[in-house]
Description:
Number of helices: 18
Radius of gyration: 21 Å
Distance between the termini: 32 Å
Structural class: alpha/beta
Amino acid sequence: MRFTSTRDKNVDSSFLQAIMDCMPQDGGLYVPEGNADLRRWILYTNEKTTFDSIAGALTSAFINTEFSPIICETTATKAFPFEPALKRLDQNLFTLELFNGPTGCHRDYGISFLAACLETILTLNGKTATFLDVTSGLHGASLCRQLRGKSRLKSVLIYPKGSVRGLEPSDLVWNGGNVYPVEIDGDISDCRRLIQEIFSDRELVQKFNLTVSTTANIGRLLPQAFFYTYAFSRLKDKVSGDIYYAMAPGNYSNLVAGLYSWRLSLPLRGFIVPTSGALGADVKGYPIITDSLVKMNDRPPVNASDPSNLERLEDFFTDYSAMIKSFIYPAKVDQAAAEKAAQELYKNYDIIADAETAQAYAAAKIKKDLNDGSGDAVVLIQRDHPAYSADFVQHSLGEKIAVPQNIQEVLAPFDLKKPLAKTKQDLVKILEQVQ
């Protein structure tokens, strides 16, 4: 499979180029080009098929012209010593837990795969690379854990002043680790502005072999497609009708990845999402992508540190324009509806839901007419451990949630005791030290 750009279909890149460059020079995002019919393999999977086996097979399907199936499977095995959990709540309702990794966050899957994949590629090519990312804590904590033991990858993590957390001394470059954390004298928008300045300078990107571990990088987004094949392998003998997935929007990476899994011939009926300022609903309830009012080539470049995958969603439906109405089901969910949904999940199923899962369940309830009673099923995507929504849980349920040890470590503040960075030149000096 080759990769092109959301903004220029003349771009023709390999998987290796797409994850190393991470951003096409036209300011858009890399997207896979073409389809692969994996229906026979997908239908062969069952509850005994492990997540890393699914990941290896799908990776091979995505990049089968560049790396052998053995390399793909080995990479997936290294990336995933953990796997999701599908749980049945009632006859037609399931949850898919994605907080089973080291930080209790869905990011662990994409970051772990990307790091394992890059480490393999860089080893084969005798090269090194550096992640340059913005974080206020959780993303950085996940990346630190996935870089431990890697010899070809380092990371420069940019934090707003006072937000460093989730690190251990052994992670730091000056202690022999792979991570150089930097505090910026400013807020998150200042951090993103500096990152954009760096990635706008192609000479610097090439000099330091820079990439990102956000979903701007297609190598971080593609593994999220594995979730749906894994869920199907557990559902296919339990569900006689169609399968819908309900999820909070986030930056729409899970939604886009789900659509990519459909392009690989995975059986599914559609995605239920709460509306947002970026993806709404018209008077008939059909989805509206606000950004579509502006032509892609008239937009500023995508910020690698803060991507919205709505551009990939728009690109997907350029080829399947008539299908957006029958694949995406937006529902308007307010705070009261989310809290009521959380209470219902707790009362009926003993599920403590984070804010996003509660919103997804509320949306599914609004769209209950989609389930016609013929055996259709809804799968709630639980992206992060509910401990990350402790305030929401306490407010909606009156319960103080216990915070697991691994999440306590992620949330623990860390004092860098290093000077603040202020300019692009400050970051360049740090990148030179990391090489």
